[in-house]
Design goal:
Strand content: under 5%
Number of helices: 2
Number of strands: 0
Distance between the termini: 104 Å
Length: 101
């Protein structure tokens, strides 16, 4: 044998694995119904997933707000720079007009 098996053997292996998986899954579900600890554990896990979902939603909203604030700051900075440049240019023109040639 080796790492090669016939198609029939592979099919039998797959069926066996599927049967074992099904039995284990049904066993776990039965145990969940009978064991209060597992039920409460499941409830806790679901609550934690809900909390994490809320946190990530809040984080996403905060990121959007932060990006908006940063964009507003950049725009304000650029407006100040533009106003400063225009003011400098106006002063240069004024000085040129006033200076004797």
């Amino acid at each position: 044998m080796g790492d090669e098996v016939s198609l029939r053997t592979k099919k039998v292996f797959d069926q066996g694995l599927e049967n074992i998986t099904h039995r284990l899954d049904s066993s776990i579900e039965t145990e969940k119904e009978n064991n209060d600890f597992l039920v409460s554990e499941q409830v806790i896990e679901e609550a934690q997933k809900e909390k994490e979902a809320k946190r990530s939603k809040k984080r996403a909203a905060e990121e959007i707000e932060q990006l908006a604030r940063e964009q507003a700051r950049r725009e304000a900075y650029l407006a100040r720079e533009k106003a400063t440049a225009e003011d400098r240019e106006a002063k240069k023109l004024k000085n040129k007009k006033q200076s004797p040639e």
